[in-house]
Design a protein that fits this description.
The complex is a heterodimer.
Chain A: H1 5-13, H2 23-90, H3 110-114, H4 117-134, H5 138-152, E1 171-172, E2 186-187, E3 189-194, E4 200-205, E5 208-209, H6 223-226, E6 245-246, E7 248-249, E8 251-255, E9 273-274, H7 279-295, H8 298-312, H9 316-330, H10 352-379, E10 383-396, E11 400-401, H11 403-409, H12 413-427, E12 431-443, E13 448-471, E14 477-479, H13 482-485, E15 495-523, E16 527-547, E17 555-558, E18 568-581, E19 586-597, E20 608-609, E21 612-624
Chain B: H1 2-10, H2 13-21, H3 25-46, H4 50-67, H5 77-99, H6 122-130, H7 134-146, H8 150-157, H9 161-181, H10 183-189
Helix pairs in contact in B: 1-3, 2-3, 3-4, 3-5, 4-5, 7-9, 8-9
The chains are: A alpha+beta, B mainly alpha.
Chain lengths: 626, 194
Amino acid sequence: MERGEFNDLMKDAFKDAEATPSENVWTNIELELEKEEGGAIRRRLLYYKMVAAASVIFALSVGAASLFVLDSSSKFQEQQALLNESSVKSSNENPKQPSATNKEVDSENGAVGKASDEHIGALKNDEGNNASAKGIDELNTQKTDNSLLSKTSRLTEREVLDKDNPVPPNALSKKGSNGVSNSIAKNNELAEGEDELNNKRKVVDNSSLSVTSGLVTTQVSDESKVNPVAANTLPVKESNGMSGSVTMGNELAKHDDQLNNQSKVTGHSSLPVTSGLAGMQASSNSNLNSVAANMLPQENAQLRNQQLQRAIDGDPMALQSNSIQTASVSALPRKMKPTIIKPEDAEVKPDAGALLLAKLAEREQAIQAEENKNKQVDRSERLWTSVGIAAGSFSAVNSSVSPTAMANAAADATTFNQNTSTANQQSKASGSTYSVGINIGTKVAKRWIVQGGLNYMTQGSDYTANSVVASADYKNFEIASLNNNSGVARDQASSQVVSTASYQVNNTLQYINVPLQAGYIIINRKVSVQVNTGISTDLFLQNTLTPEDGGLEKTTQGSGSESPYRTVNFSGLVGTEISYKMGKHYRLALNPGVRYPFSSIYKSDVGVSASPLTFDVGLRFRYIFH
Amino acid sequence: MQNGRTIGFMLNETELIEGCIKNNRTAQQALYNSYCRKMMVVCLRYTKGIDEAEDILQEGFVKVFHAIKGFRQEAKLETWITRIMVNTALNAQRKKMYLYPMVDVEDLHLPEQEVSLSGIHFKQLLELIQSLPQGCQIVFNMFAIEGYSHKEIAELLGISEGTSKSQFARAKSLLQQKLLKESTYYERYGEGRI
């Protein structure tokens, strides 16, 4: 539809039309602009805060890790020392131990007899505990246990039991030679009772084990036999007293619970740990092992016993790993019922100001996103130039020699054989490549670039020749190569191929490359990654043949009709570019890439075909114009 | 506002732009004061009321201040700002256009009598344009006043060129009918009295 008079009139009617908006418009614009500036500052502040927080966390983590490593190594050393000491001592004592499989525990066994008066008193209390357990009075059991344990913590007498004893005593105590002692009193208690449904229940209570600080040669019996079911609570206390004790009480219960099919324990064992200053670290392993015995199921108890047995046998690492394992187990939090907070319960009061700010923030984000998009396209590194060098290697992956062409170029069979051999050697040779050049690139889209340049490239390879080409009068000799024995070789009629001893020849090709590549920027940051692909026009300059020994002259053959090499060839390029932005205008790039000629580098009438696959890594210094 | 207005008269356009690029609030206010009234009319043409128009004006000027760094001064500043306002208005109206999609209009009852617009105040025209259906209003503004081609309109609005043409024809028809109906209005008040 053509624009008519009507449209022109309309346009004219609104040409100088003006209407005044309310004052609020500018106020809102100003608010939005200021909010945006404030937001940018806040974002920056938040970023720095996050960096600071991350640094602090990192520093704390490193510090904690260092402490842990130092602590572990010192623990290990102490354990080793104590192990040595205890193994010497324990070998001198071998007290008798009663069987732990007794259902009723005799509190006045030989071990208790050796304990102090306080300990005996404690064991008597423990007997009372048995009575309580039998009466299915859990609270009383707990209290009795606690009193027992508090008393056993003051034990000063040591009882070292032979590790060979398979069954532990009801009460054991050990004392360290330095007077600082930890004791683990092990008290086994077996009780029978009835549950609420009058089912029979056997309660085994308890194992209290006293061990002198750090003496890991505790006479740990096969607790798995004694404690088929164990559920323990383990309160741990530390005091600054010079004596420490570990008291482990286990209560074991056997019963059938028809209602919930769960084991019930008539009494919970308690494990107060009182560590002396010196005994703190030394006793930690035994403490934790005791904890593990209580917390873990039967299989773990067996494993722990095995590890302890290994420790007794002089393997300190067994305890080391065990202590770590049990520590992690004992640190498990109690299962808690999650509290669900229902958001709908809270009364929601919309704030008009907050709504306005939220609306503004939303708009701001949209605008920011659009602006960022424009910025990226318009302002980031649109034109650059670079200088670079590259080095790599090439190998002839697809070379062949045509016998027919070789036969046509040879006067006789000997010449044919020599020429074929030389052609094979030369065309299949691998070598190294170097290039230097300049490039220019531009960004054509947000992530797409186009770049081109001019490079000088040399490709050098060594091959073995076993003939020379002599002039008709045999006065001049040249290196045998495709330059003089192929279909395009000069002076073919007046030259002859003469067999010689093998000698090395270096063949260096020189090219001018004009690459043109398209690239896609995968990561566009300070460190950028891009993938490039394109073609290169390879202009052959010359090749130089240099013999390794001095008998022959170096030969150089330029491009043209007499050269066996194509003057113009095309290669495919694929590569990546990893670059680092060093400043507003500079980037340093690393360019690994592959080059492969689309057609043979030799002319078709040479009778030889070769397309060397080149892999090189370039280093480019890029100057960004804008 | 006074400060911005005063400085707006004192500064030339280039200085205003430079000030806005530096986020100078006074320069921004001066630029706003220079163009807000003209742009308000643009926004009114694409909307149905003042509140909606002011929302677009506000959003448009925020965009202007964001994008002014990229203003190459190849076009007139007023043209550039107008284009931003139109784009902002189109974005705002796009949702409505989804709700009321534009379709080709088959039966048009164009009045045989050509209506003259001479002497009609723009405010009256504005009211008539605002009374047009949403699609017609946008196409009419873009074609008749902004000067977009139907092809450009079709690309911008995501409709066919034919739809754009038919919507414009419908808008023109409706406007002419309304102008004819209100001819008594001119007789009563005369030209240029509004």
